[in-house]
Design goal:
By secondary structure, the protein is an alpha/beta fold. The protein has a domain of about 220 residues: Alpha-Beta Complex (Spore Coat Polysaccharide Biosynthesis Protein SpsA, Chain A), CATH 3.90.550.10. Helices cover about 50% and strands about 15% of the residues. It is built from ten helices and nine strands. Strands 1, 2, 3, 4, 5, 6, 7, 8 and 9 form a nine-stranded mixed sheet that branches. It is globular, with a radius of gyration of 27 Å. It starts with 14 loop residues before the first strand and ends with a helix.
Length: about 375
């Protein structure tokens, strides 16, 4: 059921920047992210750092970063809860999210703000480029740069409406959170070891489903650089991240339906990936063996993602079946208890009647 667009108030150029963090291991990267926000050509109204259940890190940030709002997450552990905390604290008319291991270009906020000139635009995301710490592996296909949290081959190359934004470089009008709620807990990065995601995907689809005429815009000019550490350059991480993405997509489709939840993925898997495989094979025929490797990796990545989605979907069905069986058993147990009570009541009534008959017959 769709609703009218939320009322747009204030100036869209009034932007709060939210950075969520959970570990001291990214301390230098986090400081660099904060500095990149301070150096914006269009200043942010405020920078908010949300610490995801790490008291020591919270105290350290409070004492180190004057002029920055540092708060502890008020919801359950995970990226969704941390983002919701940032939204609750933010005072700007637009809330922008930046990863704690990313650096924003100086005009990042200026271009995000510029794209809100149209009142129908409720969210704007930008181009996320990889900042490889050890260089890009030759086997890593550009079609799978989403594995490392970056824009990938198949995304628009210029400003265009999209189904969903990428969470590390995204912004939304503050009013939309009042209209449709926040990011859903249970989806995305959390205390689990698997590299899950898609909390922003579910939120964007839910927003588009509930708000009539909603436009989410990709603006290639709003650029950030996302660090890629050596451990994310390993094939084992690539495969694990693909599998986790499939699990995450299963959760998303459970919440918003497979029609909207897989609309972009169908085009991606039937158009973008086959083109990538064909391009890799063509490079192999021209004597570039790395092209053949990239083609093989694309196939493996799709297979791992599909496997994760299948397992996640079956798991959801099994959980639903168990819940249904549990409900049925509870109802059956309640019925049996009620039946026993009724029979017990009848037995006591019969015994009482026989007692009265015995006394009458003796008289």
């Amino acid at each position: 059921m769709t609703a009218a667009p939320p009322p747009v108030s204030g100036c869209a150029r009034d932007i709060s920047v939210v950075i969520c963090t959970h570990t001291e291991q990214r301390w230098d990267h986090l400081i660099a992210a904060v500095v990149s926000v301070r150096e914006q050509t269009r200043p942010a109204r405020e920078t908010i750092i949300v610490v995801d259940h790490h008291p020591l890190l919270y105290r350290r940030l409070r004492s180190t970063l004057p002029g920055v709002t540092v708060v502890e997450s008020r919801e359950e552990p995970g990226l969704s809860g941390a983002k919701n905390t940032g939204v609750a604290v933010a005072r700007g008319h637009v809330v922008a999210f930046l990863d704690d291991d990313a650096i924003a270009e100086p005009d990042w906020l200026r271009y995000l703000a510029d794209s809100y000139a149209d009142p129908a635009v409720l969210g704007v995301g930008g181009l996320t480029q990889p900042l490889w710490e050890t260089g890009r592996p030759g086997w890593f296909p550009g079609e799978f740069d989403w594995v490392i949290g970056c824009s990938y081959v198949g995304m628009p190359r210029s400003r265009a409406p999209v189904r969903n934004l990428m969470g590390g470089n995204a912004s939304f009008r503050r009013e939309v959170f009042d209209a449709v709620g926040g990011f859903r807990n249970g989806i995305g990065r959390s205390v689990h070891k698997r590299p899950l995601g898609c909390e922003e995907t579910e939120f964007c689809i839910r927003l588009r489903q509930r708000v009539r005429g909603c436009v989410l815009l990709f603006d290639h000019r709003a650029v950030i650089w996302h660090r890629v550490p050596p451990q994310r350059c390993l094939f084992a991480y690539f495969r694990a991240r693909c599998y986790a993405e499939g699990l995450s997509k299963a959760l998303v489709t459970r919440c918003v339906g497979a029609g909207d939840g897989l609309s972009a993925e169908r085009s991606y898997s039937t158009r973008i990936l086959p083109c990538g495989v064909a391009r890799g094979l063509a490079e192999g025929l021209r004597g570039r063996p790395r092209g053949l490797v990239r083609a093989w990796v694309i196939v493996v990545g799709l297979a791992a993602t599909t496997a994760g989605y299948t397992v996640g979907s079956l798991g959801a069905r099994v959980r639903s079946l168990k819940q249904a069986l549990s409900t049925l058993m509870q109802r059956r147990a309640a019925y049996l208890r009620a039946l026993v009570r009724r029979r017990g009541h009848r037995s006591r009534a019969r015994d009482a009647a026989l007692g009265r008959w015995g006394r009458w017959s003796r008289e």
